[in-house]
Design brief:
Elements lengths: L45 H4 L22 E6 L2 E7 L3 H7 L4 E7 L3 E5 L19 E5 L2 E5 L13 E5 L1 H8 L4 E8 L12 E2 L8 E5 L4 H10 L8 E4 L13 H10 L3 E4 L11 H10 L8 E3 L5 E5 L8 E5 L7 E7 L1 E3 L3 E3 L1 H5 L6 H8 L12 H18 L6 E7 L21 E5 L2 H14 L4 H9 L3 H9 L8 E4 L3
Parallel strand pairs: 10-21, 11-12, 11-16, 12-13, 16-19
Antiparallel strand pairs: 1-2, 1-8, 2-7, 2-9, 3-4, 3-8, 4-6, 5-6, 5-7, 10-20, 14-15, 17-18, 19-20
Helix pairs in contact: 4-5, 9-12
Length: 492
């Protein structure tokens, strides 16, 4: 069988990480579901669902978890089947009524965890104050699986609903970054008792995200070279010029060498919210004041209006409006400052090729979900989905992604974006530079590093307050890219 492989890198040794199970990395914010299946009333009887029977062990070669006696389930983790047994308790019974259930989790220091909005009915008398490796928990608004450091877990009350079979724990522990888990009933295991989890995709299908912890001009050029991308024709370098007077835009001294390496023209579009970059002549002045015209040619793509791109496969948009000069360039290098955002939750590569490349009217078009060309009104999730769809139209136009690559710089990690001239001062450490040919994988990797950082509470709160991860969910659904990736640390 083909075995799916995730990179096990030294990246998590770079930071002092705190498991998602620790209270310090869980900001006090309203619940935002990361699930892809909405909660529905169960239409199945207990007989149809094969609810727990005493000791329903199957002759599969798997070792039955202790204290179980519940129902066998499959945890499909990024297309790898992990076998687990639900416990015979009230919370596990409630979880059965949700199946099939999908949640996106991230690997922190010791566990896999993802935010959930549903509340499981449970009997407090059945809660535990200890936690074993492989056990599946549902508490404090989080779905969690303990991967390591059983002895280091603090004593506290947890609702535990089941446990991964011993034979699959090592496979479960190998996952890093973002993991999409779909839990479902499995009447009989599909393997032959070898203790080797079923796998469905080849590692060759997995996009690579490169990482360096060194934020310097030299490392920016080095990580670009790792992409092994040779642009042809006229090259645009898309970035944010930054709102005056004090935004956290990428400084010219950091990016000058890589812009020169591709012989690129720096490009931007006017804003739709007024201020210093809404009108073309003023925007050119900002670009000059911020030093961009000193290192390369510079162009406002929508100074002569818009051009239309077709959106294929979208559910919100059928067309997208970018700057009229967008098609004057053959290839695009997208340089993004990763940070929080007051409307999108976070800003990275996807936002840079959607809102960022949108003309002034195109920005309003995305914000409104394709209903207005002025203003910003619209439903939040529709806006996030429109961003993903606009981004896909750009990628599709550029040779289905062959003529565009992406670099995210994770420094000055404010909760506010570079469109804010007076952003909140960052209260977390810089992380590094990441690069990929896949914008979804790249943004997901950045999100995972934020969640793994011990001082990221405020940024996480900003992301979740706007349901920011929904952009990634929809982007993957429509085929812009993959949330599964292989992380390669070029510092090693």
């Amino acid at each position: 069988m083909k075995r799916f492989v995730r990179a096990v890198t030294a990246i998590f040794l770079i930071f002092s990480l705190v498991a998602c199970s620790a209270d310090s990395n869980r900001p006090d914010t309203e619940d935002v579901s990361l699930t892809e299946n909405s909660l529905q009333d169960s239409e199945h009887s207990e007989t149809e669902k094969n609810l727990p029977t005493e000791g329903n062990t199957q002759d599969t070669g798997y070792t039955e978890p202790e204290n179980s006696g519940g129902t066998d389930i499959i945890l499909n983790m990024n297309d790898t089947n992990i076998h687990a047994r639900l416990y015979d308790n009230a919370a596990a019974d409630a979880f059965l009524n949700l199946l099939p259930y999908t949640v996106t989790v991230s690997r922190a220091a010791d566990d896999l965890c993802g935010s959930v909005s549903e509340q499981l009915e449970h009997d407090p008398a059945e809660d535990q104050d200890t936690w074993a490796i492989g056990e599946i928990g549902w508490f404090d608004g989080w779905f969690t699986i303990l991967c390591d450091n059983e002895e280091g877990m603090p004593k506290r009350t947890r609702t535990i609903i089941g446990k991964v079979y011993e034979e699959d724990i090592s496979v479960m522990q190998s996952f890093t970054g973002s993991v999409k888990i779909t839990a479902s009933l499995e009447e009989t295991f599909s393997d032959t008792g070898t203790g080797e989890a079923d796998t469905l995709i080849d590692e060759a299908d997995t996009p690579i995200v490169y990482f360096t912890s060194d934020i310097s001009a030299e490392s920016l050029t080095a990580i670009y070279e790792k992409l092994n991308w040779t642009p042809e024709g006229k090259v645009a370098v898309k970035l944010s010029t930054g709102e005056p007077p004090a935004s956290n835009y990428l400084r010219p001294e950091l990016i000058a060498d890589v812009v020169s390496a591709v012989d690129g023209t720096i490009v931007e579009c006017n804003t739709a919210y007024g201020r210093s970059r809404a009108e073309t002549s003023m925007h050119y002045q900002v670009a000059k004041d911020h030093g961009f015209t000193d290192i390369a040619d510079f162009q406002i793509l929508d100074e002569d209006g818009s051009m239309t791109l077709t959106v294929d496969g979208g559910t919100v948009l059928t067309e997208n409006y970018v700057g009229a000069a967008f098609a004057d360039y053959d290839c695009y290098l997208v340089l993004s400052h990763f940070k929080g955002h007051a409307m999108a939750g976070y800003g990275g590569a996807i936002k840079n090729i959607s809102i960022g490349l949108g003309s002034s009217e195109g920005k309003s078009w995305i914000h409104s979900g394709g209903t207005k060309k002025k203003g910003f009104s619209g439903k939040q999730d529709i806006f996030l989905e429109a961003m993903a769809e606009a981004g896909k139209s750009v990628s599709d136009y550029l040779g289905n992604g062959e003529k565009i690559v992406y670099i995210n710089v994770m420094n000055r990690l404010s909760v506010d974006c570079d469109c804010n001239g007076h952003p909140a001062e960052p209260d977390m450490h810089d992380i590094g530079i990441l690069a990929s040919a896949d914008p979804v994988a790249l943004d997901q990797a950045c999100i995972d590093l934020v969640y793994a950082a011990e001082d990221s509470g405020k940024l996480i709160k900003r992301i979740e307050s706007k349901n920011g991860l929904h952009t990634l969910e929809h982007a993957e659904e429509i085929g812009l890219g993959s949330r599964t990736y292989e992380l390669v640390n070029i510092d090693d």
